[in-house]
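Quick question, first post here. What does this chain look like in 3D?
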Amino acid sequence: MPNRIENFYSKLGLLRSAAQDEIRHAYLRAAKRLHPDTNTRPGETELFLDIQQAYQVLSDPSRRAAYDATLPPDEEIASVVSQRLLVSRKELSPLKETQLVYVLIDLSPAEEFKNIANSSPLNICLVLDCSTSMKGEKLETVKGTASQIIHKLNPQDIFSVVTFNDRAEVIIPATRQGNALKMENRIQQMYTAGGTEILHGLRAGLDEVRRYRNPKNINHVILLTDGHTYGDEQACYELAKEAAGQGIGISSLGIGSGWNDIFLDQLASITGGHTMLVSQPKDIERLLKEKFSTLSNTFAENVTLEYELGDGIEISYAFRLQPETDPIMCENPLRLGSILQSWPLSVLIEFIIRPQALQDDYVTLIHGNLNISANAIETALMPIPIKITLNVKQNSNPTAPPPPIIQALSKLTLYRIQEKARNEVAAGNYGKATEHLQRLATNLLGQGERSLAKTIMLEIESIEKKNTYSESGEKSIKYGTRALLWPEEKTI
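> Answer (accepted):
Ran it through. Tokens below.
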């Protein structure tokens, strides 16, 4: 009997029931991703040879049959993660209208791997806005926090700092076991001047992380700014896409109300990162320390779901519920985020099912692979196959969704209400926007969230008088409702 590591299906990220066209497509995807001409990461040249061997066996019907005969009936794909997939409905009726189905994905380290994640070194660059608007308490708080972080780094960690305004400067080059006093002195020499051009800072920060980029490190850029960048947003997105392809995450902290939350949210989402609102300068220290603690607790960074959908099926919405709450861009692959050692990755995905998808006795909702790079695991990991198929029946009996999906939808409702209100304001439908906000405020009062409800009532007045939100109120509502999704018992 073959050893589990020789499971040819797991090498291609396939189920045992895979058809020949699925085997061919899986091989082509894996070959493109792992070919030695384009990928030189340690361990992946050997993995490329493994998938070639798997394809040679599985693509030949006679060799595949002989191989399958050596596998026990209950052969399972060995994995470093535990997974739970829940679907809101088991059956669909062939109706003439669009239907919604929700899938909840929970991923956490397998028991035997839970105690080895903390050995992964950090490779982190702080990219700090030093434009004129950062003068005073903001900059002084950033200086103090950065100095404290230096003293909490482990000897194997790699740390760098870039400042930017209308140009960028590397004030601490990427290094490990540096002279802490010298690094602190460099930080204390930071000063404010000029405007805000994020592209310069982001490019310099990514360059520093790339110097020591390694799949066994936690490679991440933390961007902190209090202002808008103008004209270079698209170039920043392109940099983020490059970073995502290299396994580098980007997270953002926006200070006050003068920054572009839509831009920073999308920038972080491209890499599976996280965006935070810093309401007051005094919050900078706490949020930066929390981010470093989260990164230090990472088991697997940049988890992605590569997928195929049938005709008439669409992913309309995806949201990471934990460990860090953020919307997920509905692109292929879905960048789900990170699995922490002490807290699972939980993602809710909303599917639209159109009538043309329901022509047969069953419908494949999604077919794809979870790609996971666990930093503390020495060998390259096989993709984890995901395939969800639902029965199609006339007059199917509707059943209640599993409780975890109901709970997830309930938690997400308030955040989605504020999204609808914001979209209505953008479309000029101010009456509908205030209706959504009234509903949101009523729900929050019922939950005892009086401060946030009061902020919403003030924003209703602003929309009624000025046809717009106030800049600070809009962000407070958005990130305030997002914060309500955080698990109360969460500890990092």
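The chain has four domains: 1-78, 80-113+305-370, 117-296, 403-483.
The chain is about 40% helix and 25% strand.
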